[in-house]
PaaI family thioesterase
Amino acid sequence: MSVTTAPSDELRADALARGYFGIDVPFMRHIGLEPVRLAPGLARTRLPLRPELVNSRGHGHGGAMMSALDFTLSAAARSHDPLGLGVITIEMNTHFLATATTDLLIEAHILRSGARTVFCEGDVTDAAGNVVCTARAVFKLVTLR
């Protein structure tokens, strides 16, 4: 499947059934990130705020949020062929806007996509819908087949 070919609904369902949108990511399992939705140009995950994921003040740890964002942004980048593409993070900028004290929803989408480079942005929101963290990233697409 080429980079520009959209997968069938069956392929997307297969990717959702395979752990983290078609791949195994032990670290995401470790932090408890849950895949929620994958659609063309969009990925959504959920991060339950467990005691192991807080900082010294009891707020969501920035590193945990950055890890969840990196994965979710990368999932959006490869969403048009989740079983045939991998990605390499080239750059990621993160901005922390508020403290996180509840479970978190991470949503990412593609801003612009080229033949081998994809630009994405995403937000982390708390249970009340407040944006607590935002990021933009650039990914290099890598064919897995």
